[in-house]
TrEMBL record:
Species of origin: Cirrhinus mrigala (Mrigala)
Domain comment as written in the entry: The selectivity filter, in which calcium ions are arranged in single file, is composed of two acidic rings separated by one helical turn along the central axis of the channel pore.
Protein name per Swiss-Prot or TrEMBL: Calcium uniporter protein
Calcium uniporter protein C-terminal domain residues: 2-68
Membrane topology, as annotated: Multi-pass membrane protein
Physiological role: Mitochondrial inner membrane calcium uniporter that mediates calcium uptake into mitochondria. Mitochondrial calcium homeostasis plays key roles in cellular physiology and regulates cell bioenergetics, cytoplasmic calcium signals and activation of cell death pathways.
Any one of the GO CC terms: mitochondrial inner membrane
Parts of the chain that traverse the membrane: 15-35, 47-65
Length: 68
């Protein structure tokens, strides 16, 4: 039972880590596209600030809910 729980915990941790990496890579790509091709930094700077702040709030909420 202990080994099964350990495997499940490791699998979930791996999924969370890779999911976070995919989210950050996607966010970087979208923000880079919007900054250098669609708009300018003057427009995107406040957008990136609020996205970063929102992401930090979401990660803190995850921590509070899961205690991880």
């Amino acid at each position: 039972v202990k080994e099964e729980l350990s495997r499940k915990a490791e699998r979930r941790t791996t999924w969370v880590l890779w999911g976070g990496m995919a989210y950050m890579a996607t966010q970087f790509g979208i923000l880079a596209r919007l900054t250098w091709w669609e708009y300018s930094w003057d427009i995107m700077e406040p957008v990136t600030y609020f996205i970063t702040y929102g992401t930090a709030m979401a990660m803190y909420a995850y921590f509070v809910l899961t205690r991880q």
